[in-house]
């Protein structure tokens, strides 16, 4: 059963907190229509957007999903589960909205945030009402005594209580009735299933009784049959015992013959084993004597080899000492000549050559850490204009001349930090691969605590984008990465130090898989 949605700006909430759920709340400003369930009228914490542009709460959405079929309960339009969108109503946003007191009908004119209505209603509000014990009239508690002393109070108690009930009481009773109805339906279903089970059990008992009767009849039949067979079996056993005794006597004679044959075979096997053992021992003694003589000859040879190795080791040590002295002298001479040539070459190197050397020396440099300063000024500019940028000094990474920076963007009252990068014209661009073909990783760094936080990635190498092409002028257009991080989250995480913070830029090879 759907909860009726009150008219005006009074809404029933669900899924936010136990203080606000299922209580009609009068908001000063209207709730956006896309936050209200089109089926039951509640304002849920989680909403479902259907392709037909209708909005449902999670409870109503579960009711419109059948056996592999989904359709809108309002217009019957079918849809796929992957085509729906889920959205969350932030609790902080709801609690900031202004609402009226629940005692508005009793004269309370206080407006407060939704987060304070529970405290105001139960601790601060002075407009709670009660019923007169004499006339049952609905009056303020602060005026009960004055009402009892006045002439307006009578003991007839004929006033219609239902007519004086407030909209909040009516809505609360409807919610209670709805919950009671759902509980009763659940218990009725359980009782019905219990009755069905009892009926099935009774039919099962009847079948078991019939089966027991059949088993008793079968038991009597088996007993009679077994007695008849027992008599016949005794006669058969007597005849079988006589045959077994005859077979036993015949087998005894055959066993005696087998035993005599086994004795003769055992004697022959013993004689053969003794002969084989003597032969093996004689061969083993011969082999041992030959092995001893061979070992004695090898020991003399080993002594001679050891003496030769010692002599070679002494000669090799002397040769290595002489070679070491010669190498040291040549290295010293070469070092002096190289130092002299470097001094002469450094005097003739031009500024252009220095730039080329700088570019070549950074081909293997993939990381650069820089500091973003004057954060307060950047934040103020972004709050005023909606955006702000900061560029660091140009540096060379992997041979590319890059200006790193950050881009602050204002989104719905909060500031997000995005990485910013600009390709400049470098001194060795003709030797590099174009378009720019690296993955860029940007990381926040907390140098004091040794922590870092990766917050942005971007892929280069797309020739249709101007910022990835080889610069023809002094520099290309700058570009920022769409992935960003809320500046307040970074402050709470301890990555901001005063009016500045540190960032690290890494160039990684592009993963082509």
UniProtKB/TrEMBL annotation:
GO CC annotation terms, alphabetical: cytoplasmic side of plasma membrane
Coiled-coil residue windows: none
- Keywords for this entry? Metal-binding, Receptor, Zinc, Zinc-finger
What Gene Ontology molecular-function terms does this entry list? tumor necrosis factor receptor binding; zinc ion binding
Where does the RING-type domain start and stop, copy by copy?
Answer: 37-75
Q: Name one Pfam family in it.
A: TRAF-mep_MATH
Q: Give the source's domain of life in one word.
A: Eukaryota
Would you kindly state one Gene Ontology biological process term found in this protein's UniProt entry?
A: regulation of canonical NF-kappaB signal transduction
Q: Could you tell me what this protein is called?
A: TNF receptor-associated factor 6
- Which source organism does the UniProt entry give? Rhipicephalus appendiculatus
